[in-house]
What does this fold into?
Amino acid sequence: MEHEEEFNRQVEEELQEQEFLDRCFQEMLEEEERDWFIPARDLPQGAPAGEGPGAGDILSKSNLNPDAKEFVPGVKY
It folds into this structure.
């Protein structure tokens, strides 16, 4: 009987831990979803990303090389 009670207590603790982890994970996902910038959702309709007021001005002043290779961390060119 003592072993059965110990086993039941252990199983109950594991179930509570799993439920807690599930809740934490769900909260994390919801928080990420709120904080992510999603252009289709967060920009006004009819204003594509990078084409808002002043976008042409920013692009004309840019000194970045549009033909440069994409940066890959840890890769030496």
Remarks:
- The chain has three helices and no strands.
- The mean pLDDT is 81.
- The longest helix spans residues 2-35.
